[in-house]
Amino acid sequence: MTGEPRGPQASRLRQRKIQRLRRFAIPPDLLPGALTRSYTRCGNPRCHCAQDQGHEAWSLTFMVEGKRRVERIPRDWVEEVRRRVEAGREFQDAVRAVLAANAQLLVLARRQRKKRKRR
Question: Is 54 left (phi over 0), alpha (psi -120 to 50) or beta?
């Protein structure tokens, strides 16, 4: 592709893209997927879970090589895993925004190229 798109719209798109790229270096501890809480029953008829909602259990669900994985998360890891999953989601959103800006810049460059050829 030759020639960068010009004008205020292109400038705004490039600025948004650069802001996001500056904000996010690839942090080494991000996690993909979703952290979920569920409740299980232990089977003991005298346990509170027989009448109540059950024992709290946490799991992280994510994809690896096209396969869905579900891993149990210890209760004392939940806050740290939650923080890392949220950071991973923010990073993915930023990458999507940069890719969208790149696509919009490509379309804008193509339109501007057509206008220049018509003149």
Answer: left
Tell if the pTM clears 0.70, that is, is over it. Answer: yes
| Tokens 């205020």, residue located | 8
The dihedral through the CA atoms of 74, 77, 79, 81 has a sign that is: negative
Rounded Cα distance, 97 and 105, in Å: 12
| β-bridge partners, 57 | 38
pLDDT tens, residue by residue, 79-110: 999 999 999 999 999 899 989 999 999 999 88
Edge-to-edge, what's the strand order for the sheet holding 34-40? 34-40, 55-64, 67-73
Give the list of residues 6+ apart from residue 66 with CB closer than 8 angstroms, or none.
none
Helices and strands of the chain, counted as H and E runs: 2, 3
